[in-house]
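Notes from hallway chat w/ T.B., transcribed later so I don't forget. T.B. wanted the structure written out for a chain they're using in a teaching module, and asked if we could keep both sequence and structure tokens in one place. Agreed to drop them here.
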Amino acid sequence: MKNIKMVDLKGLMNRIKPQIDNAIDRVLQSERFIGGEEVEEFAKELGDTMCGPHEKSKVFVIPCANGTDAIQIALMALGIGPGDEVITTNFTFISTVEVISILGATPVLVDVCETTFNIDCDAVEQVITDKTKAIIPVHLFGQCADLGRLMELSTRFDIPIVEDNAQSLLSTYCDGKGVSGASGLFGVFGTTSFFPSKNLGCLGDGGALFTRDQVLALKAKSISNHGGSKRYEHEVLGINSRLDSIQAAILRVKLPHLKSFIAKRQEAASKYDELLNDVEGVEIPVRSEKSTHVFHQYTLKISGGVRDELAQGLADDGIPTGIYYPKGIHEQKAFSSLGYKKGDFPISEKLSETVLSLPMHTELSDAQQNYIVERLVSRLSELRELSALRETHKMTGQK
């Protein structure tokens, strides 16, 4: 089967291309390429979408250039710098951690839960010190970390939460004990990315912060614009991080479709579940009882030490896969100075050797999913047979 993609951006764009073309033309005619009405309206519309029709508390959205900048701006708005510690997960993309170091603070890494891939809250509590100035949970692959427990820690130790919500926009959390709401709106800041492959993606780079605190919102907006609220007047040190108007216009077109995009991903995930649930050597994604899952990724765990061979076999069959992530942050050379060593994060290390993400997007057909799973099952069977043959040869001394 041809044309199976990890993320089918072209197929999605073709369905809304006339609207996208009109949005781009609108910006071209306006000659406002940085800031302006498109960015302002997108910020308002995203805030309204996140808080829901019955909430009275306003959500302030600060668009910026990308998801990495969003985290950095949030930490800058909180005044985090040299001498401070920020706790976050070891099993994440590097951007979550690198901004901590860029600001001169120290990343304090903790392991994750083996089932949900999200930050281990017990481990978080164990490393809190007087120097801890923020906790950054990453809502990985599409579902929330344990926000109820994190907010309890935040309140007890007076430590702000900054949610990395780049993969889980519009996922919701409910612990059955009165703690509920949209991901990204529990902490003092939530951050997200509009990288093209995200559930809500633009056609370039883009990101945003969200908060319910108007004072923090104004501070973050100022920081994103060279630290100034007026032209040529700069109250604080800032950075240049702005969402351009064309990307904002494109996001305005896609935003009303976001819930239907998520529903299509959830439908595809359920189909995968049905096909893979009883396959030997495969563990399907675990849904947290406390969170919805918007399936930015559909990530399996492959046992038997054959993950890499399986991925190569699927690639030979024309099926792309992803490994998120092949190394924990503690194994990255850039963070060797933190002093962590192999074995410090056993769950992260195990996941790095076993996780495999299958194609996941709004355009997946039943035929494509059937083929993907058929080839996956066949390749696993071949690898088990090969492994058994190797073991037999080893036992008999054959080569």
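Follow-up for T.B.: The chain has two domains: 9-257, 258-396. Might be a good example for the class.
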